[in-house]
Design a protein that fits this description.
The longest helix has about 30 residues, at about 5-35. The protein is rod-shaped and about 50 Å long. Helices cover about 75% and strands about 0% of the residues. The chain has 1 helix and no strands. By secondary structure, it is mainly α.
């Protein structure tokens, strides 16, 4: 595998991970604002 192909592959992996973490972060912030439990369970 050439160096440029390897760089593109690593970039794609980082983009996917960043998208997933970004969605989780937005979900957590909205959950704190609404006062809900994070993954559907009840903490109390």
């Amino acid at each position: 595998m050439k160096l440029t192909q390897r760089r593109i592959l690593i970039l794609l992996i980082i983009i996917v991970i960043a998208a997933i973490l970004g969605r989780l972060t937005i979900r957590a912030v909205m959950n704190f604002l609404m006062g809900g439990a994070m993954f559907g369970g009840n903490f109390l």
